[in-house]
Amino acid sequence: MPKHITLAIPHGLGAEEVRRRLDRQTDWALRRLEKENISVAMTDWSQGGRTFTARALGQDVSGNVVVADDSLWLEAKMPWTIGVFAPAIEAVAKHYAARLLAPGGVA
């Protein structure tokens, strides 16, 4: 049975600033994931969100990132074989989102 992760992280930066910060950090994040043998493909922004697919441990993960004026949403669907790592994935996502949305926006 697939595992779903949904995170909503509030912010007061406005959607445009959050998208700008995400765009600025995307290359860094993709390089870091590649070092861990995780490949990620992302679509362009459309209507305040973008979708992604990732491949890790021979399994596919799909999801989307949605930026609203007051919150950042991350949704992901993964097979149960990767879903066992969901608590760790959620913790890492929250950590980097908090850093991204903090003053200075360092991720």
TrEMBL record:
It comes from Methylobacterium tardum. The lineage of its organism: Bacteria, Pseudomonadati, Pseudomonadota, Alphaproteobacteria, Hyphomicrobiales. It comes from the Bacteria. It holds the Pfam family PHA_gran_rgn. This is Polyhydroxyalkanoic acid synthase. InterPro entries: PHA_gran_rgn.
